[in-house]
Amino acid sequence: MVNLDLIKKLIQIVKDENISGLAVEENGTKYEIRKEAGGIVQVQKEVAKDDKSPISSKNEKETEEEGLVAITSPMVGTFYRSPSPDSPAFVDIGDHTAHGKVVCIVEAMKLFNEIESEVSGKIVKILVENAKPVEYGQKLMLVKKG
To answer: Exposed/middle/buried for 115, CB within 10 Å: 0-12, 13-18, 19+?
Structure first.
């Protein structure tokens, strides 16, 4: 289970103390907070190998459905399909996406982080409703490579 209160406190410490990042381990789970260019804060959660929690990682993106790759959330936050409420969605089902193309936004602590596709292909499924909370590693969309 993600300790959201701890993550919020760590992000606030990074901001308030004007440091580039920090890492904390709690009950076998390591949280790493880094401030990147432009003030964007990145959150990473790493679970000890003996922990059986269902956490996805970039190396485990292949889904059971052949040829589909999941775009996952790199942080805890709120999922948005478009840059603003009256703007069109970045992508819809059936759209083609390219490696590096922005496909959605995850807002964390009032910072809007653009999520880019790591593969080229066709969006076949959007797994999260707009403006709903997401967790680190949660699958957001499925892309058919090609």
So the answer is: buried
List pLDDT tens digits, range 38-76: 555 555 556 555 444 444 433 344 444 467 899 999 888
Rounded distance between C-alpha atoms, residue 143 and residue 146, angstroms: 9
CB–CB of 23/29 below 8 Å?
no
Model confidence pLDDT, tens digit, residues 83-130: 998 999 999 999 999 999 999 999 988 889 999 998 999 999 999 999
Calpha distance 109→112 (Å, rounded) = 8
* Structural domains of the chain, ranges and CATH numbers in brackets: 4-47 (2.10.70), 58-145 (2.40.50.100)
- Secondary structure (3-state) at 112: strand
